[in-house]
Amino acid sequence: MTLAPLERLPPHDIEAEEAVIASLMVDPDAMLAVVNILEPSDFFREANGWIYDACLALWNRDEVINQITVAHELATRDQLQAVGGQTYLAEIIRRLPTSIGVEFYARIVKRDATYRALIQAAAAIMQMAYEAPAEIDNVFSRAESLIHRIRSGESFRDFLHIRQVLDAYLEQDPAEVERLKLTAIRTGFTDLDTLLAGFKRSDLVVIGARPSVGKSAFALAIARNAAIHQHANVAVFSLEMSAEQLAVRLLSAEASVEANRLRLGQNTEFEERKVIDAAARLSEANIWFDDSPFLTVAELRARARRLAGQAGGLDLIVIDYLQLMHGDNPRNRENRVQEISYISRTLKSLARELDVPIVALAQLSRAIEARHPRIPMLSDLRDSGSIEQDADIVIFLSREELYITLEQWMQQHPDLPESAYPKGVAQVIVAKNRHGPIGTVELRFRERFARFEDWALRTDDHAS
User: Fold this and answer.
1) DSSP 3-state percent helix, strand, coil across the chain (nearest 5)
2) Distance between CA atoms of 173 and 168, rounded to whole angstroms?
3) What is the SS3 assignment for 101?
4) Catalytic residue of the set 15, 46, 176, 240
5) What is the pLDDT of residues 75-112, one digit of tens each?
6) Which helix or strand (DSSP H or E) is residue 287 part of?
7) Are 350 and 305 in contact (CB under 8 A)?
8) Is residue 16 left, alpha or beta, with left meaning phi > 0 and alpha meaning psi from -120 to 50?
9) Beta partners for 208?
10) What DSSP string runs through 185-247?
11) Cα–Cα distance between 452 and 464 in angstroms, integer?
12) How far apart are CA 119 and CA 297, in angstroms?
């Protein structure tokens, strides 16, 4: 009779476990082969895990590992008799065929431990499903986190000989090799890329501005430039705008056609051709939208991991915007400042985990509008100073024309011509750069199309 899955003993191999710990007691070099593979908790027989832990403690203290020292270590922990005493240690050493295959034995133990962890995760997922909570997205997020933690536990790395690296490289798919060249994601703006040398993988980049300055348009421009010019895989999480709104914004900027005309279908024949060409270019770009309006960091993590698996990796994540996110359990957070601190720390951890730059937009406080000149400062980041601490790069956007009319500007600058008025001038202020210099560059902002451009690269026939 076949046993039901839950009635079976979980996967295990006691002989492989005994071969590992016996090898450690007879071969001085055996620990080097298994220390990056196994944890004491990976052993099915608890006593074998205790013996392995004793060997590990001796090795960490640079002491000899043999039957006598291991027995002494177990005795000091009051575990020697529980594992079977000196008799058990001697017996598994006697039965050991050879210590040469210790790494092979260790991988068998690790494999079975992973299967047992999967069984436990499946049971936990089944329990969550039986409880049938109202928020099914939270169940998916927790389930994916359980599986991801198991998978991450296997991703240990040891030293690799150059031959192994070169063989693996030469066997790679050309498309994958090309994607791996994206060690830095360029913004697509010449002066800014010269200053920053692009966004490095695992960077948390914060882009801050007051409302209506154009931070969403700026982030979309970076996403578009990376996807089209570097063939990057880009995920855009928008908590403020729908996927349709984002797509129309990108199409408007790409085609140089006002978004309102696109929505109302008022394009001229010439504009229609530009829209078709722009749509064709954008359709080839690897940009994915998630427009869930209520998003926790756990849900974002789970969705980003899932997309990374489906897309063959991610090269850039954009979040619009940080202060609209929530912690995993907001009711347990004492205040909003602590919640934002938790979110920024988690985003930085996610950037490292997925090895991808994360660009998080942030709302700035009203303090800017009460001072002169109205240049953003790091202290203007709303809700938490930890955003500044966790970020590798902090960029502010500023447009002077939003705060001063042409007439007011002329009164303040009577010696300058009217043409010097900063219409369409956007200052991009790098206020923090963990990798290098800070500074300010200027871009042109086409308000009609919500498009940022290098100042010198566009001709005036596109002017708004």
Assistant:
1) 55, 15, 30
2) 10
3) coil
4) 240
5) 999 999 999 999 999 999 998 888 788 889 999 999 99
6) strand 287-290
7) no
8) alpha
9) 362, 396
10) E--S-HHHHHHH-SEETT-EEEEEE-TTSSHHHHHHHHHHHHHHHS---EEEEESSS-HHHHH
11) 12
12) 26
Indicate the SS3 state at residue 57: helix
Which residues, other chains included, contact 214 with Cβ-Cβ below 8 Å and sequence gap of 6+?
397, 399, 426, 445, 450, 452
Sequence letter at residue 231? H
Element (H or E) spanning 252, and its range?
helix 243-255
The DSSP secondary structure of 11-39, one letter per residue, reads S--HHHHHHHHHHHHH-TTHHHHHTTT--
Of residues 375 and 84, more confidently modeled: 84
Q: Name residue 250's amino acid.
A: L
H/E stretch holding 316 reads strand 316-320
Nearest in space to 378 (alpha carbons), one of 250, 223, 206, 213: 206
Instruction: Give, rounded to a whole angstrom, the gap between the first and last alpha carbons of the chain.
Output: 79
* Mean predicted confidence (pLDDT) in 294-318: 81
pLDDT in tens, 428-461: 989 889 888 989 898 888 888 888 888 765 444 4
Query: Which two structure tokens, joined as six digits, stand for 128?
Result: 């969550």
pLDDT-derived band of residue 304, with 50, 70 and 90 as boundaries? confident
Which pLDDT tens digit goes with each residue over 319-328? 987 888 877 5
Q: What is the pLDDT of residue 180?
A: 46
Give the integer Cα–Cα distance in Å for 315 and 285: 13
Q: Which domains does the chain have, with CATH numbers?
A: 1-159 (1.10.860.10), 179-462 (3.40.50.300)
Cis ω before 52 (30° cut-off from 0):
no
List the beta bridge partners of residue 442.
427
Is residue 240 part of the annotated active site? The answer reads: yes
DSSP-based three-state secondary structure for 399: coil
Taking each helix axis as running N to C, give the angle between helix 14-26 and helix 85-95, from 0 to 180 degrees, rounded to the nearest 10: 90
pLDDT value at position 204?
92
Joined tokens for residue 67:
């039957």
Could you tell me the two tokens for 333?
Answer: 């957070």
Average pLDDT over residues 393-401: 86
Secondary structure (3-state) at 326: strand
**Overall pTM surpassing 0.85 (yes/no):** no
What residues form DSSP beta bridges with 453?
A: 444
Q: Does the pLDDT value for residue 43 go beyond 90?
A: yes
For residue 358, what is the enclosing H or E element?
strand 358-363
More confident position, 302 or 169? 302
Query: Is the Cβ–Cβ distance between 192 and 221 less than 8 Å?
Result: no
Q: What residues contact residue 331 under an 8 Å CB cut-off, 6+ apart?
A: none
